[in-house]
């Protein structure tokens, strides 16, 4: 790419556009301050001033790319089946990974001691929304936090495995099997209570409260009082 190809836009916009192209064409190794500066027509100090370092630049590109992806899916309306919507979300996640492998690996390729990049955090928030809807429907087998972590780990591992396969050997059946295994672990086919909602959930939990060993007798008594109060609000 020549500098003239990225002549339009602000320095930040040119740098992001150039970096995205270099990343897509050659992966993380192709992104260097020299290559980006030459193609974008800027000096290295400009890159450092705007993005801090190479990782900051890559994170900014990943954030912009993922934001564009989320915007393209903004018109998708949730259905009456939140578990099916989770399936759709999983498939879209894998599709994004395979269409943008280098970008995906910047987002999810290696754990960050200081936390995930903003693009990955945005993805987790979308996932948490899917999981919360399953919980509201009374179909979640585990806590919302654990469900989010399980789906995230399963999707991330599946995407990385598929990216690492030669295109001719890539079998998307792997993704479908992994997806269904994760969903079976976190969600039930039918609601745990006949009529999903706080009242029915409170009644169901009140009925089995004595079976838990996680609470002291005092804590069970307090929770029993709260559940009675909720279920009394029919």
From TrEMBL:
Domain HTH tetR-type: 9-69
DNA-binding region: 32-51
SUPFAM superfamilies (UniProt xref): Homeodomain-like, Tetracyclin repressor-like, C-terminal domain
Gene3D superfamilies: Tetracycline Repressor, domain 2
Keywords associated with the record: DNA-binding
Domain of life: Bacteria
InterPro entries, A to Z: Homeodomain-like_sf, HTH-type_TetR-like_transc_reg, HTH_TetR, Tet_transcr_reg_TetR-rel_C_sf
Pfam family, one: TetR_N
Record-given protein name: TetR/AcrR family transcriptional regulator
Species this chain originates from: Streptacidiphilus alkalitolerans
